[in-house]
Specification:
heterodimer; A: 251 residues; mainly alpha; Four Helix Bundle (Hemerythrin (Met), subunit A); 9 helices; B: 57 residues; rod-shaped
Chain lengths: 251, 57
Amino acid sequence: MNIFASITRLYHQFASPPYFYRISGLWLPYIMGLCAILFAYGLYGGLILAPTDYEQGEAYRIIFVHVPAAWMSMFVYMVMAVTGAIALVWRLKLAEIVMISCAPIGASFTFLALATGSIWGKPMWNTWWVWDARLTSELLLLFLYFGVMALYNAIEDRRTAARAVAILAIVGVVNIPIIHYSVEWWNTLHQGPTVTKFDKPSIHLSMLIPLLVMAVAFKLFFIGSLFMRVRTELLAREQKSKWVTALLEPK
Amino acid sequence: MEALDFGKYNLYIWASYGLTFLVLAWNLVIPWFAKKKLIKSIKRRNYLNNNGSNDTI
């Protein structure tokens, strides 16, 4: 069989609401279970196993929640923009729902990155906040998420709203490289990249491992939380369809 | 619990981890309640449509 045809078929099958609802329901407990195990290990590795930093003392331990949250704030935005593009081009209902479900989760991770960064900044920089490139562009990301949510709720027709939101989400992508490279392009209080350098990361393995484990845990958490929101939104939009009626029929 | 005593940074570290916990919990509780509420309303409407009077839509 033609491989392209089978991929297309799989894609359409996965994008069908009842199929996605069923499969995501099967996966959800495993995703959240693995996420909980990785979180437990990441906390143990970060708070107990990892040694004290020679420069920042114990305060650096905020990195294990701050950096994964900041990475996720950008990753979720990219997922939102890519599903937005898919929604615009192919008018897939599932893509629209995934896109809009990303917004509150992404906003919460952005808030967390800003808040933990601020708490970290106080003892290290002696200030809660500076208007430098990294912090300001991350704050702009939070406002982009708010803008997406506000725009979606301002337009009554869900499908028109999704198209408008998709355009806003795609335009906002320009902010992502600005956040990422801000510490290299401008002089800033924020420290430079420690992990995503092409040569060797300037962080010891005993600190890098819990950081990466936490990053994977955050990613799994995002997928799990996204599935929860998408499933609810699918039910809401398809509540008059046969599959939802059959699903909720009293046994 | 000596290993979890971070001296003068205790407050900063535990505030960060506490906040992380709250944000993650919010991301679970909100969709969970939203789903529960929605299912209840769909079930109620379906019940009315099947057993109820003609004046339900």
